[in-house]
Design brief:
By secondary structure, this protein is mostly beta strands. Helix content is 0%, strand content 72%. The chain contains no helices and 13 strands. The chain has strands at 5-14, 36-48, 54-67, 70-83, 86-101, 106-117, 122-135, 144-159, 164-181, 186-197, 200-217, 220-231, 241-252. It is globular. The protein starts with a strand and ends with a strand. Residues 1-20 have low confidence and may be disordered.
Length: 253
C-alpha cells in the first residue's frame, strides 16, 4: 500500500462547544487501491506550563484492507488531558467503513461509528449508515473532487446537569470533497458536510475543513487547517458555532 501520514507534533488552539457531532472521515481516506493490508499508528502529545499547566495525550490506530473492488478501514482513537492537575479531557472514537467500488466514478459505502466525550456532555453516540459516492474527476491521490449522499440512524445519549437525555433518529448526510495541488510543494483541501435531521429539517449540522499542506523537506510536510462547525439546535445553552485551527508536522512513511 502507499505511504500513510503520521502527525509528529500538533498545536491546537480555538473555541469549542459541547458535542457538535460531525466527524471528518474524508480526511482519513487512504488513496491507495493496491490489494493488501496496511495500517497507521499516531501518537500526539501536547503541553503548556506557566500560568496554566496543561498536558494531553492522544493515540489513533488505523487499519486498511484492500481486496479487489472492496476497501475496509477501521479507525480507533482515544484522548486524555489534564489542566492544573484536574482531568479536563476524556474521549473515545471508533469508525468502521466498507467501500465497494461500482465503477470508475461510483462507490457504495456502509459504516458504523461510536464515540463518547465525558467533558462535552456526550455520554455515548452510536450510528449505522450508508450512502453513494461519486468522483467528479479521477482520484489520483494528489487531486480529488467527489460528492457523496446518504443517511444514517443514530442514538445519542447526553449527560446533562439536571437529566440524562437520549435521542434516536435519522439524519441525511451530504458532502463535497476537494483536493487540489497548487504547485509541486503545496496542496489545498476543502471538505464540507451537511447533515439535516430527516424528521426535523431545520435541525441540522454543518461542517467545513479548509487546509493547506506544504512540503518542507523530503517526506516532511507542514499542515495548517481551519475547522468550522455549526449545530442549529445544540442540546444545551451553548454557542451554535465552533471554530478551531491546527498546525501540524506530517511525516509520510
Amino acid at each position: 500500500m502507499t505511504a500513510h501520514s503520521w502527525i509528529a507534533g500538533l498545536l491546537c488552539m480555538g473555541l469549542s462547544a459541547p458535542a457538535i457531532a460531525i466527524t471528518n472521515i474524508e480526511s482519513h481516506r487512504a488513496p491507495s487501491t493496491d490489494d493488501g493490508v496496511g495500517g497507521q499508528f499516531r501518537l500526539t502529545a501536547a503541553g503548556k506550563t506557566g500560568n496554566t499547566d496543561k498536558h494531553s495525550l492522544s493515540g489513533q490506530l488505523r487499519l486498511d484492507r484492500h481486496h479487489g473492488a472492496t476497501h475496509w478501514f477501521l479507525i480507533g482513537s482515544s484522548e486524555y488531558g489534564e489542566s492544573n492537575g484536574e482531568k479536563n479531557t476524556q474521549n473515545n472514537f471508533a469508525h468502521l467503513r466498507r467501500i465497494a467500488t461500482l465503477s470508475d466514478d461510483w462507490a457504495w459505502e456502509i459504516f458504523a461509528q461510536y464515540q463518547d466525550d465525558a467533558f462535552r456532555l456526550l455520554d455515548a453516540r452510536s450510528l449505522l449508515g450508508t450512502g453513494l459516492r461519486r468522483h467528479l474527476i479521477p482520484d489520483t491521490g494528489e487531486q480529488r473532487l467527489a460528492i457523496g449522499a446518504g443517511a444514517y440512524y443514530t442514538r445519542e445519549v447526553y449527560d446533562l446537569t439536571s437529566r440524562r437525555l437520549q435521542e434516536d433518529y435519522a439524519r441525511g448526510n451530504a458532502y463535497l470533497s476537494l483536493q487540489l495541488p497548487l504547485n509541486a510543494q503545496s496542496t489545498l483541501s476543502n471538505i464540507t458536510y451537511l447533515q439535516p435531521r430527516l424528521d426535523h429539517l431545520e435541525d441540522f449540522y454543518a461542517y467545513n475543513d479548509l487546509s493547506l499542506q506544504v512540503n518542507v523537506a523530503g517526506s516532511v510536510f507542514l499542515r495548517v487547517a481551519l475547522e468550522s462547525r455549526y449545530d442549529s439546535h445544540p442540546v444545551a445553552d451553548v454557542e451554535t458555532t465552533d471554530h478551531s485551527y491546527t498546525t501540524a508536522l506530517v511525516i509520510d512513511f
